[in-house]
Task: structure prediction
Amino acid sequence: MTRRTDSHPDLTDPRVGAPFFSTWRVGTPLRQRRTVEAVAAAWERRPWPADDLLGYHVYTGHDTSTLLHYSQWTSEQAYEGFLLHPSAASLRALRQERVDEIDTAVPGIERLALGRYRHYRSGGGPAEGGEGRVPGCVVIVDIEFEGPDPDRQRAWVDAVFEALENEPAPHPGGIAAHFHLSTDGTRVLNYAEWDSARSHIEALAAPGDGIGSATALWERVQTWPGLKSSTVSRYDHALGLVPD
Result:
């Protein structure tokens, strides 16, 4: 069966081979709340969809209009098998039932593209003094490059870590950062855990461009060849669903 949890996901879980992120645009704070409630109801009253789905989490955007969805699959092949294999027809029917129930409760949801990623590197967390710190805010930094280049994805993330390791004034509100590489080679997604939205806003307001100080290493990150765009969005963890 399906169990609801308030716990944040473990983004470093080695079983997760295919982390997926997507965004729904719902329009208003009231519709955000109603959609989260509809998702919870539609999932909790039905069996867990697949053994290879380890967890599913929903977040409300501070823009008061969007929801972020994060699902943890063991592999992309397992996800594709769930979608396409004939033996999974009954499970797909239950999936459609969930979708229909949510759309009936909150008509007009705009579902944006599903982003397929691989976890690459994490910093902070229990290994670096983050044990027991519960995130009060999740910050998603979405980086897009000009064309696919897996080597560039990894090199850019490595450069971020070099800048972080040499940061002269790290903000104490940062808990952990989890970097993911899109499977198409064009994007990097940083799922950053902060103790509060206020701390993140304060870090952005400090001298420098972004959360880093005005150092040569951060300038290198920000002017990386082929870097096309960067967006920052803040979210609250609203719903966790896991197999019971």
The domain at 118-236 is CATH 3.30.70.100 (Alpha-Beta Plaits).
